[in-house]
């Protein structure tokens, strides 16, 4: 089944998404997500200029060989741009294979391990009370796992808090230059233990809470926070410290039993190998779009299973519904799946572009049984919403020192 064309679309229904369409000789096509937040055009060019010419004429059924060809064959292995390109091609090839077989991709991955995919929702607010009120709304919608992020008193803007924006698209979608955010670890420590103490007091043990530190703490500060949060039994503390030095987590793990999650910025199994084999974390958070697609995620999940580590795929607003659909097929068929981050199916406009029949029921996703990934991309609608450069913020300490965002 020869590949005859590869198209790359960058659309902005409120935020940028990079969508790849692989087309074969009989017209069967597959879709993949190549969205790299703030670097969309780099991936677009990489695919158009360096990947597409090598794919024309190749057999779309040879998913593993094409993955290795694009990974081992390029010499400059790994990295977010290369791996987002490989990821999108990989997702599209799995989509094609499912369509040809007349089966949803999860059936090709080993079939269902569970009836639905458990999700965690986001609750954020300007105060602790506001955040917990949002959590109560999530509980009413059927979620039993909720990420809590509250504004840090004394700082203009806080990661993960919408402020006066109506949704993450509005918050992230229109930043022609990187906005600068302030950070204070001292002010952060004054807030977070109190946030979870009040959450536990208000909601008891019926709901599991999570938190994303977003790489802001040094290892010993992460250890301190983990210890302070132990009484509140978090499902996990995410990105407690920076991910580059996996050994950071050896120190953190030594001091606290708060479960640790990491991995949304990782691109290959090599990035997380030490973390996994030393059991320094409890959940691996890679995303199909950043970690080499369905093929890349399977390699990581199976390695993690040997060390009793579960998957908790990244599910941020800057991963398109195509990536989310790929995650559903992975999550329903991966034995050591833990939980999936969920921030909704996108805004109204994006839902006219990315169409699917995934169902949200009681904090779970019921996966599509349509052949392939079960998602459609409306090119005509997408073309109405053209690329708009938008950056992620940059973080600085109060004295101006550049810090981790
Ligand atoms: C966050 C992400 O959802 C999360 O866990 O860490 O929203 C992250 O900030 C974005 O993906 C960055 O593009
Ligand atoms: Mg995160």
Write the layout of secondary structure elements.
Elements: E1 3-11, E2 17-24, E3 29-33, H1 40-55, H2 63-71, H3 80-101, H4 105-108, E4 117-125, H5 128-140, E5 145-150, H6 168-172, E6 180-183, H7 185-203, E7 208-212, H8 219-229, E8 236-238, H9 248-255, E9 260-262, H10 269-277, E10 283-284, H11 293-306, E11 310-311, H12 321-333, E12 340-341, H13 350-353, E13 354-356, E14 359-361, E15 364-366, E16 375-377, H14 379-383, E17 394-397, E18 402-403
Parallel strand pairs: 4-5, 4-12, 5-7, 6-17, 7-8, 8-9, 9-10, 10-11
Antiparallel strand pairs: 1-2, 2-3, 4-15, 13-16, 14-15, 17-18
Helix pairs in contact: 1-3, 2-3, 3-11, 8-9, 10-11, 11-12
The structure holds D-mannonic acid and magnesium ion.
Magnesium ion is lined by residues 212, 214, 238-239, 264.
Protein name: Bifunctional D-altronate/D-mannonate dehydratase
Domain Mandelate racemase/muconate lactonizing enzyme C-terminal: 128-259
GO molecular function: magnesium ion binding; mannonate dehydratase activity
